[in-house]
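Hi support team,

I've been running sequence recovery on a batch of backbones for a student project. Most finish fine, but this one hangs at about 90% for roughly twenty minutes before it completes. I'm not sure whether the input is malformed or the queue is just slow. I've pasted the structure tokens below so you can try to reproduce it. Let me know if you need the job ID as well.

Thanks,
M.K.
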């Protein structure tokens, strides 16, 4: 019943704190522990109901999906200005599917993703500026309570002061999780939530880096995502679940999410070879596949390679000494999967027709 995993997504209010300078921590796909219980409980009801597929190309009665940013004065004016530019750019190049209007929370039965979606952003030099409206906010995430969903951007003052590119890439990262929900989980019942965690997090990792590479000339691709810790990749299926659910995603071995980002880049590389796609086409499919089919072989159906064979293919990337004086150990030589310098989100999502 993997296709029902999405129902409990926003039922659980989970706030996760970022714990390293580059890490973006958040809540994207559902936690399996929560959702497995949900799925067995309501199996009969769900099995009897028809899947209603939302077509994003058809105008939605509620119109486009929008955001309401709330940017606290603790943030530098420059950041607030850039935030507006980044959000507008992303909405232009990859608008959120209006099908997200129909996202239904499994437990409450409510449309739990409201448009406009609130975005709360502030500098961590002050405490949560909205303690009454949204108590307990911290870190960066998409969070919810079963009747509403919102974006949290608690920006680290060190990043803001030091000009760290993460202050901008995290906006694209969290935006992408909203995009993924619209694309993968808005059908009723949602069919796409079963994609593994590494596709959610790695996809957001790829988009955040493509965005800053294009607009700021800087990204984690510049140093080949180093370090992609080699031992972590010995069991790629560990990245199908978050660390908190017994997996490896966003755990100690997944430094700043780089392992998952590497996996999505490797998938895009694989698709160019196996399906003969152009680079832009391969990224479009890797980042924005259709909602996961209700099939035992969903990965194979969509990507033309089985999940197991894809995991095996990762062994082709050799482990080498890190070369970074601050990280000892072997890392995956990831240079072979880095995108072309001139690859843009526009080329991927708005290809010339
Ligand atoms: Zn994320």
């Amino acid at each position: 019943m993997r296709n029902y995993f999405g129902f409990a997504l926003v039922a659980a209010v989970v706030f996760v704190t970022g714990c390293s300078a580059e890490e973006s921590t958040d809540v994207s796909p559902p936690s399996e522990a929560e959702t497995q219980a949900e799925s067995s409980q309501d199996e009969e009801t769900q099995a009897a109901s028809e899947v209603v597929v939302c077509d994003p190309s058809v105008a939605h009665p509620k119109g486009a999906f929008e955001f309401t940013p709330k940017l606290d004065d603790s943030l530098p004016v420059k950041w607030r200005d850039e935030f507006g530019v980044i959000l507008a750019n992303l909405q232009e190049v990859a608008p959120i599917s209006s099908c997200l209007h129909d996202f239904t929370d499994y437990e409450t039965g409510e449309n739990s993703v409201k448009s406009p979606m609130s975005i709360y952003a502030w500098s961590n030099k002050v405490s949560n500026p909205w303690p009454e409206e949204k108590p307990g906010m911290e870190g960066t995430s998409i969070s919810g309570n079963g009747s509403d969903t919102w974006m949290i951007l608690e920006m680290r003052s060190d990043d803001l002061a030091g000009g760290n590119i993460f202050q901008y890439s995290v906006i694209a990262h969290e935006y992408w999780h909203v995009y993924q929900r619209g694309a993968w989980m808005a059908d009723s019942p949602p069919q796409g939530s079963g994609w593994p965690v590494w596709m959610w997090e790695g996809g957001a990792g790829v988009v955040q880096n493509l965005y800053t590479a294009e607009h700021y000339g800087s990204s984690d691709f510049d140093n080949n995502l180093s370090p992609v810790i080699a031992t972590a990749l010995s069991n790629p299926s560990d990245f199908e679940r978050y660390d908190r659910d017994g997996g490896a995603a966003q755990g100690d071995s997944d430094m700043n999410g780089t392992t998952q980002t590497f996996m999505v880049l490797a998938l895009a590389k694989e698709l160019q070879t196996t399906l003969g796609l152009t680079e832009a086409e391969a990224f479009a499919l890797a980042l924005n596949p259709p909602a996961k089919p209700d099939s035992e072989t969903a990965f194979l159906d969509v990507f033309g390679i089985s999940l197991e064979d894809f995991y095996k293919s990762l062994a082709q990337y050799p482990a080498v000494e890190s070369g970074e004086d601050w990280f000892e150990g072997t890392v995956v030589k990831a240079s072979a999967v880095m995108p072309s310098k001139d690859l843009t989100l526009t080329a991927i999502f708005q290809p010339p027709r």
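--
Follow-up from support: It reproduced on our side and the slowdown came from queue contention, not your input. The chain has two domains: 1-36+52-194, 196-353. No action needed from you.
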